[in-house]
Amino acid sequence: MEKFEIKKHFLLNGQPFKIYSGAVHYFRIAPSEWRLTLLKLKAAGLNTVETYIPWNVHEPEEGQFDFSGRYDVQRFVELAQELGLYVILRPSPYICAEWEFGGLPAWLLKYPDMVVRTNTPRFMAKVEAYYARLFQELVPLQITHGGPVLMMQVENEYGSFGNDKAYLRAIKHLMEANGVDVPLFTSDGSWQQALQAGSLIDDDVFVTANFGSHSPENLAALQVFMQTHHKQWPLMCMEFWDGWFNRWQEPITKRDAASFEQDLQALVDADANFNLYMFRGGTNFGFYNGASSRVGIDYPQITSYDYDAVLHEDGQPSAKYAALQRVLNVTTPAPTGALPRPLASVHRTAQLHLVDVLDALGQHCHSAQPQTFALGSGYGYLFYQTQVAGNHQPEKLQLLDVNDRVDVYVDHQLVTTQYQATLGTPIETPLTPTSTVQLLVENTGRVNYGARLLSPTQQKGLRTGMMVDRHLHYGWDQWALDFSQLAQLNWQTPSPSNYGPTLSQFTFDVSDRHATYLDCSGFGKGVAFINGINLGRFWQDGPTQRLYIPQDFLRLGTNQIVILETTATASDEISFAATQEENLNA
């Protein structure tokens, strides 16, 4: 059995060992793509693969766990070992990763006394229950048990959130109580305040830093911190950022291969260890895209997590692959696999209006005050409806404390869409004595970083309520939409309504399964599903218009794509493409 230690150097079986690692998120790529991705990682000269472990995908509902399919972390780690790679795991309750709520489950917010990432009884009890199940999967994978896992993370960038050492120690003790006996580490920004606040260096928990440039300066800062605490440990950049994530309505952010190569070379020349973040990009399938917080506003990230990484979203090498090989003096050709290919265009086979299938798709609740996203899964959309009395003259409506985006219908007419800066702006509209007001509220993604994790805005939905004139309005029906119920829809029955969001069905046959991209440029804003699997969000505002479909999501024979369109733009035809947009993959 092998042995891994952290002394002045990393020691593997008593011999100095250099960790050259790359991040691959098993939950962001399809299982059929794991092997080839790991083979490309090894051929690039790396010896270790690192991955986060998101709590929200493994415990989507409290007490219900999922370690199957693309969430089968044990299978992913065992495959890495089979291919001769070591593994670093980051199973902390919070992961950031530009992932919805930083990996924290939305159901935590159903508890009024919940304070995430704190040493409070409610939060720690939920972590304890999760860890009791999670580490059944992970403990056998440790190098101390014959597996490939070298070390695990206690918390992630906690120094950019808090400095509660009691909380960090509680997480550490939970890991150890559940059988973790490999070395533990923390990772933070490289400045002194972040390292001091987020580390457990006085408890002998290994300290790493995250950065993507100015390698000598950042390594020097990490070295100073260690020396201040009388530690002689190897230097490691746990996240060497080789690209960056992207947000809706903003240009694609890229990093040129030359600067990546120069800064990575400086790391290697300094005898440091590193983990490339990311080695392969991936996809924020479903409603799992996160959001950045800027000046009190949440800016959601896009569905593609291409990250301008060494391997693109679809697994094809970028220019950084060759740059990485040059730095590591490797000449092994990258293994090749099948390229994505387009499918034939498909015409719409049926269409329904959302308002006609609310009971089939939604968990209904009637209440005096409007409910929040705590009503359902916590993700996606919540549809509200109420009756408001007027006198055939303009009245003012105002939505108080609503997030994140809302389409407002009055008597079956869309009167406004509010988003970010316009949320809560008074709405002047004529009202009859029996006017119907309907709201489609979208949770566009919870923040994944910083103190705003604790903000009430992460609850999502209509929190305080709606003002009519000068009074709060009471008496609401609401439906928490559950798209796992798409198979229950009756597409043969014509939709009686002619307004509001639509669900468009496209059926087609496939005789050869292969990866492709769904082109959503003919639509406005919404979500696409293939064979019941949520591909993620699209938005005409960009910067991307295509959604990646791995071959795993296709079936031989008949396939079905359903597109929820929340604007007036809904094409009667869909097409496919072989690549993501040029501006993303150039």
Task: Give a structural overview.
Belongs to the glycosyl hydrolase 35 family. It holds the Pfam family Glyco_hydro_35. Keywords: Glycosidase, Hydrolase. Strand 21 and strand 22 (413-419) form a beta hairpin. The model has no long low-confidence stretch (mean pLDDT 96). The chain is of the alpha+beta class. It has three domains: 15-282, Alpha-Beta Barrel (TIM Barrel), CATH 3.20.20.80; 346-352 and 489-585, Sandwich (Jelly Rolls), CATH 2.60.120; 358-481, Sandwich (Jelly Rolls), CATH 2.60.120. It has an eight-stranded parallel beta barrel with strand order 4-5-6-7-8-9-10-11, surrounded by six helices. Strands 18-27-19-24-21-22 form a six-stranded antiparallel beta sheet. The longest helix has 18 residues, at 121-138. It contains eleven helices and 34 strands.
Strand and helix map with partners:
Blueprint: E1 4-6, E2 10-12, E3 15-16, E4 20-23, H1 34-43, E5 48-52, H2 55-58, H3 73-82, E6 86-90, H4 121-138, E7 149-156, H5 165-177, E8 184-189, H6 192-198, E9 206-211, H7 215-228, E10 236-241, H8 257-269, E11 273-277, E12 282-283, E13 291-294, E14 297-300, E15 304-305, H9 319-327, E16 346-347, E17 350-353, H10 358-361, E18 362-367, E19 381-388, E20 393-403, E21 405-410, E22 413-419, E23 427-431, E24 435-442, E25 461-468, E26 471-472, E27 476-481, E28 502-510, E29 516-519, E30 525-530, E31 533-539, E32 546-549, E33 557-565, E34 573-577, H11 582-585
Parallel strand pairs: 4-5, 4-11, 5-6, 6-7, 7-8, 8-9, 9-10, 10-11
Antiparallel strand pairs: 1-2, 2-3, 12-15, 13-14, 16-34, 17-28, 18-27, 19-24, 19-27, 20-23, 20-25, 21-22, 21-24, 25-26, 28-33, 29-32, 29-34, 30-31, 30-33
Helix pairs in contact: 4-5, 8-9
